[in-house]
Amino acid sequence: MNVCELLRLLQTEHDETAARADNLRKQIERLTTALAETEARPSSPPPARSSTASPHPTTNRPPRRPPPPPSTSAS
Question: Most exposed of 5, 21, 32, 74 (fewest Cβ within 10 Å)?
């Protein structure tokens, strides 16, 4: 491989790398814009639930304790 051919290959790789970097810059710009638009949107409140459909009832009772293990001693 002579020097001219090596330089040509290096230039080709450089051009391809520059094109990929440009595409990545554009993608970052699009994603940054989309993120800013998403963050600027007002968040809607979650839908109201019926108090009877609540999976976590609000009570003042302490949680039940599990029963003690059975005794293993023989009488």
Answer: 74
Mind listing the pLDDT tens digit for each residue in 10-24? Answer: 999 999 999 999 999
DSSP-assigned states of every residue in the chain: --HHHHHHHHHHHHHHHHHHHHHHHHHHHHHHHHHHHHHHSPPPPPPP--GGG-SS---SSPPPPPPPPPP----
Q: Rounded to a whole number, what is the largest CA-CA distance in the chain?
A: 99
Measure the N-to-C terminal CA separation of the chain; round to a whole number of Å. 95
Type of residue numbered 58: T
Q: CA distances (Å), 40 to each of 26, 32, 52, 69, in order? A: 21, 12, 35, 56
